[in-house]
Amino acid sequence: MSLIVQKYGGSSVADAESIKRVAKRIVETRKAGNEVVVAVSAMGDSTDELLDLAHQVTPIPAPRELDMLLTAGERISMALLAMSIRSMGHDARSFTGSQAGMITDARHGQARIVDVTPGRVRDALDEGAIAIVAGFQGFNRGTGDITTLGRGGSDTTAVALAAALGADVCEIYTDVDGIYTADPRLVPRARKITRISSEEMLELAANGAKVLYIRAVEYARRHGVTLHVRSSFNNNEGTIVYNAPEQSAPAPESAPAPESAPAPESAPAPESAPAPDTAPAPETARENSETPVEEPLIAGVATDLSEAKITVVGVPDIPGKAAQIFNIVAKTGANIDMIVQNVSAASTGLTDISFTLPKSDGQTVLTALTAEQGDVGFKALQYDDQIGKLALVGAGMRTNAGVSAKLFTALYEAGINIEMISTSEIRISVVTRADTVNDALRVVHAAFGLDSDDEAIVHGGTGR
Questions:
Q1: Domains of the chain listed by start with CATH number
Q2: Helix pair angle (63-87, 46-57), 10° resolution
Q3: Low-confidence ranges of the chain (pLDDT < 70)
Q4: CA atoms within 13 A on the CB side of 39
Q5: Interval 302-329: pLDDT, tens
Q6: What are the binding residues?
Q7: Which residues are annotated as a binding site for substrate?
Q8: Binding residue ranges for ATP
């Protein structure tokens, strides 16, 4: 008997009928001879509605109480889903994050997993039940408080459970048929990818692809979990995210199943129940986890409009100044993405340093740098939140020349200016104006021959 972990997002369980359809799919997976654990999100947009309600009663909700409020959404959906499954004649038991053993640190709103002890979930499976676990939430042993994992926390819950339970595959259900070479809402002729390495998926997720969240992908990579991204509206095979041999051995930082990465909910519901043989057997998952004979040149293109750029103008070009600047930024907790330092002006001995970061951290970092301006000695700060980032990702870049030239030529011919450039072994990222980034996406997608003959089908509206 194989063990399958499934994750269903808010659009999958948006209403009673959707919950019934998801329950039917879960039951069919169980009838096929599999043990089944399900991580579920709050219904529809209920998390956003609860957030709005909190901000109506106070402009700055207390973090502890906000977590208590937000976790109510997943408790509702998990209980309703378990009821629906039981009405079909199958035993199902719902568990909160704390009951399922999702142990986290004490940080409210963005807690990180430090241990997973799913004893009650394992007991339920041993007794023939389907286990339904509330995603997005955990528990801190030190404070005794409920915590939440941040956006995409249900994806991370599912992967963490799959790792701790030794699942054969972790299925992430969404409203598209798998992972595409670009967001099919922006590039209608984006091509579905059959298999993609976790390394490439990490780069795409880190650069704006929303079908999977980076924390979940990183957890899966570190703990050898095979991901299967599928649509909950049909029985198509979707996309396998496989671990290359050198990546497949888990490398926990601490405790049995710790989380390890920065921050990503997904999926609607099937129109009809899948045939019992649609659930992937462990043999299929293992076969799909093998590395292809040769990696494709380009796996996909992603865009991100959530970042801003800060330029520190007139920095003395002497050793230690960059360290001062980024130590100040580090104390704010902001995550820096791209960094560019200009060549020093010979006449002044001054340089400019630009970096990108999440817009949500922009004001905090500006305030911190302004407070230390006298010590650092820079002249001014510039803030720009009208930028967009485009990233071209592909493991084949390691062994193929001319990728940069083709990318920059495509952007030049489209009249799109590049403001910053960053690279890794398998990624090239560029910053452009926010109002040109979608045009850049379509131009680059076509330039690298990624367009499909047919338009992609998007069953829902958000990609989650």
A1: 3-292 (3.40.1160.10), 298-447 (3.30.2130.10)
A2: 150
A3: 245-296, 459-464
A4: 30
A5: 999 999 999 999 999 999 999 999 999 9
A6: 7-10, 47, 74, 174-175, 180, 185, 210-211
A7: 47, 74
A8: 7-10, 174-175, 180, 185, 210-211
